[in-house]
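in:
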């Protein structure tokens, strides 16, 4: 696996991974997301993602929609806490068309008010649909409690009353600040010549100059979050009456930032407890042994200054306390009893197999290696990741469990 990389004169970084496939995945990943927003503009990163498709000086919104579809390609976008992504899947002979379109919408969108007025209601419908899904909504609210008064707690979608107030000027202000070549990465994955990629991007971004000012990203300033044991974190127990037929529960804590050497041990432990496999400990306990839940899963995410770890499950309201007790029983087990050599070896084989299979999804892998390069300058190396997993010991995993999973560290949010 050999990447090609270059930084253009305007600051745009390009990362290219050759493959034998004639299908090319390419696009822009921008260092701006929900955590880049000021408190009064929550939801604007996602709003701009929608509005960016609504017209440029050269293309109308209909032209943008039809451009790649006319040759069988796909155009898509999404927003996360820290990143906004615009990308395409296209046959390699149409790469230049995709690069032109993507560069045009990212750097030259005009955000016409007439189009925004229509799209705002689409976004508000998306928000209300999300609010009607407690299994999804609880993740946002949990993160807000976990990172209270910090940009990482921002809801990606925002609130309808705020979104309805955004205008062309607001979109321009946010994108002028963050949609800059030096704050972006263009990624390419497919059977296409790197020199051609570079020449094409030079052509379509020639008029886009870098800014002398580094874009201000609020979440990067909050070094107080760097340690999961910081005094700023206080575990909470929250019950919200949602009048739902089923209870929804999250239990979790702040985790390790992406630079912390303990992160890989938590990554492996998370998979043991609540990963996608049916043999995950929480699934075996809550579902297979006790028949109390349909879904139980744990998740782990790392950011530049902090991280988070959590468990989610849905259950009958009468079973909340029993399910919480079973989750905490499994957490106590990893605190008190180190993995055997056989358990550790099986866990490592399992997660490496899952990683290898996931990498076979070329679209997902392209988006992932571009994110690593954007935020940290890392050329994603699966072999190196495997080696780091192999270094993890049973004592490493137990030490992480002792640090994070004690009762006084765990925040609980219940919808019922």
């Amino acid at each position: 696996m050999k990447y090609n990389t270059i930084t253009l004169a305007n600051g745009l970084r390009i990362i290219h991974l050759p493959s034998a496939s004639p299908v090319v995945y390419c696009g822009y990943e921008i260092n701006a997301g929900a955590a880049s927003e000021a408190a009064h503009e929550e939801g604007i990163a996602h709003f701009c993602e929608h509005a960016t498709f609504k017209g440029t000086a050269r293309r109308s919104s209909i032209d943008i929609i039809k451009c790649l579809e006319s040759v069988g390609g796909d155009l898509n976008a999404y927003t996360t806490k820290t990143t906004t992504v615009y990308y395409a899947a296209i046959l390699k002979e149409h790469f230049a068309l995709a690069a032109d379109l993507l560069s045009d919408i990212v750097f030259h969108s005009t955000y016409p008010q007439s189009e925004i007025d229509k799209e705002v209601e689409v976004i508000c419908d998306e928000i209300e649909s999300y609010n009607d899904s407690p299994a999804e909504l609880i993740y946002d609210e949990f993160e807000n409690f976990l990172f209270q008064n910090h940009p990482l707690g921002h809801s990606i979608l925002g609130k309808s009353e705020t979104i309805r107030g955004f205008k062309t000027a607001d979109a321009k202000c946010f994108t002028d600040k963050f949609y800059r070549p030096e704050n972006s990465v263009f990624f390419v994955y497919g059977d296409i010549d790197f020199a051609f990629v570079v020449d094409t991007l030079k052509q379509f971004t020639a008029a886009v100059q870098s800014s002398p000012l580094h874009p201000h990203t609020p979440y990067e300033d909050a070094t107080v979050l760097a340690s999961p044991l910081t005094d700023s974190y206080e575990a909470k127990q929250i019950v919200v009456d949602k009048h739902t037929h089923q209870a929804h529960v999250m239990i979790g804590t702040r985790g390790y930032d992406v630079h912390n050497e303990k992160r890989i041990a938590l990554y492996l432990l998370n998979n043991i407890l609540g990963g996608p496999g049916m043999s995950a400990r929480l699934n075996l306990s809550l579902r297979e042994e006790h028949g109390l839940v349909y879904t139980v899963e744990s998740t782990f995410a790392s950011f530049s200054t902090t991280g988070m770890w959590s468990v989610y499950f849905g259950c009958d309201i009468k079973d909340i306390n029993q399910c919480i007790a079973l989750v905490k029983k499994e957490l106590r087990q990893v605190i008190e009893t180190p993995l055997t050599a056989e358990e550790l070896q099986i866990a490592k084989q399992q997660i490496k197999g899952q990683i290898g299979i996931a990498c076979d999804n070329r679209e997902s892998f392209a988006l992932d290696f571009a994110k690593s390069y954007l935020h940290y300058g890392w050329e994603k190396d699966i072999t190196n990741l495997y080696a780091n997993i192999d270094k993890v010991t049973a004592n490493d995993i137990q030490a992480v469990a002792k640090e994070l999973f004690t009762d006084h560290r765990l925040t609980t949010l219940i919808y019922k």
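note: The chain has two domains: 4-219, 225-415.
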